[in-house]
Design brief:
This protein is an all-alpha fold. It has one domain (4-319): Farnesyl Diphosphate Synthase. Helix content is 75%, strand content 1%. A hairpin with a 2-residue loop joins strand 1 and strand 2 (91-92).
Length: 322
């Protein structure tokens, strides 16, 4: 089996800005901007590692891996426009640097490129990978809409929130792992188990993102801490706080949500998160979901040593501070 470092090296050797057209530059410069921002590469890595886990050809997994990374970055470009975000991983967002119209069109062409690379594989796998990818894309778009809907609501249940982040974030991790399994010829049961591993890891991953937005290190996270608080974004922490707060604390929380002084708002909400025990509740929920993910991975029917690399990666994702 290949180490994650070896897989990422293969990936980086094959894919760079030359994988997109050069002209018109006004279309492709924004694409190259977002794709040049070094992310975690978790989705393509998971796809390749899953293919490797089940004994498949890593070479055949490279194009679908790139397709998922392009698709993921397409969603980020459009999400940043909808969220009016200025910074992505410490770098100006596409629409901030190139304008909203260029951001929309760059995202559109990235979606087309995702399909281009997804289908550049042995023809026998194309129907199943397209089925998985299309279902995942639909769920991601539904998740984004739920996220926007939640911004207009005062009360969102935990179950609703978990469904939203399942669609918006987790399904793409599950998709990556299932695609790798399909490319390697894994059976349906193993495909489901590896998908469930990604799904629950993704849920823990998103709650960790919510957590880091409030309690992370801004330099490590790559954005201003408290951005979600300023926007009254319905994160796991805020939803839990709204359910836990009573009386004077609830009044204080609502007052803070309407506070236009960003520094006061961030400090006050974070203090309530700690006072109400929300910080600990979020930590415990992350751990529960992570444990569930590990159970799914352990149930995959391959030799235990072959799972060690994915177990190590999962721990790194779970314990990250960025």
């Amino acid at each position: 089996m290949h180490s994650p470092e070896e897989l990422l090296a293969l990936y980086e050797q094959k894919f760079n800005s030359s994988n997109f057209n050069e002209s018109p530059s006004a279309l492709y410069d924004p694409v190259k901007h977002i794709m040049s921002i070094k992310g975690k590469r978790i989705r393509p890595l998971l796809l390749m590692m899953s293919c490797d886990l089940f004994g498949g050809s890593v070479a055949e997994a490279l194009n679908p891996a790139f397709a998922l990374e392009v698709f993921h970055n397409f969603t980020l470009v459009h999400d940043d426009i909808m969220d009016n975000a200025d910074i992505r991983r410490g770098i100006p967002t596409v629409h901030k640097k190139f304008g909203i119209n260029s951001g929309i069109l760059a995202g559109d062409v990235m979606l087309a490129y995702a399909y281009k690379y997804l289908t550049d594989i042995p023809v026998v796998h194309i129907p199943e990978l397209l089925r998985i990818f299309n279902q995942t894309a639909i769920e991601i778009f539904e998740g984004q809409q739920l996220d926007m809907d939640f911004e207009k609501r005062t009360n969102v249940a935990e179950t609703e929130y978990l469904k939203m982040i399942e669609y918006k974030t987790s399904v793409l991790l599950g998709c990556a792992l299932q695609m790798g399994a399909v490319l390697a010829g894994a059976d349906q049961e193993n495909q489901k188990r590896i998908y469930d591993f990604g799904l629950n890891l993704g849920l823990a991953f998103q709650i960790k993102d919510d957590y880091l937005d409030a309690f992370g290190d801004g330099e490590k996270v790559g954005k201003k801490i408290g951005g979600d608080i300023v926007q009254n974004k319905k994160t796991y922490l805020l939803i839990t706080a709204l359910q836990a707060a009573k009386g004077a604390q609830l009044d204080e929380l609502h007052a803070l949500l309407n506070n236009t002084n960003e520094e006061e708002k961030i400090a006050g909400v974070k203090h309530l998160f700690e006072t109400l025990g929300v910080k600990v509740i979020a930590e415990n929920r992350m751990n529960q979901l992570y444990d569930k993910a590990i159970e799914s991975l352990q149930s995959v029917m391959v030799e235990a040593p072959r799972k060690e690399l994915l177990l190590k990666l999962a721990r790194a994702v779970h314990e990250r501070d960025f």
